[in-house]
Amino acid sequence: MFERSRKGEHALLIQPHAGGPPDEGVLEEFADLAKSAGATVAAVLTARIDRPNAAMLIGSGKLAEVKAAADATGADLILINHPLSPGQERNLERALERRVVDRTGLILDIFSQRAQSAEGKLQVELAQLKHMATRLVRGWTHLERQRGGSIGLRGPGETQLETDRRLLQKRVEQLQRRLDKVEVQRTQMRRARVRSELPRVALVGYTNAGKSTLFNALTGAEAYAADQLFATLDPTVRRIELSGGAVVLADTVGFVRDLPHELVAAFRSTLSESREADLLLHVIDAADPLRDERIAQVDAVLKEIGAGDLPQLLVFNKIDRLDGAQPRIDRPGEGRTRVWLSAREGRGLDLLRSALAESLELRHVAGTLRVAPRDARLRARLHELGAVRAERADEHGWELEVDLAIADAQRLFAQPHGESLRPLLEAVLEPDDLV
Question: Where does the sequence pass through the membrane (predicted)?
Answer without folding.
Answer: none
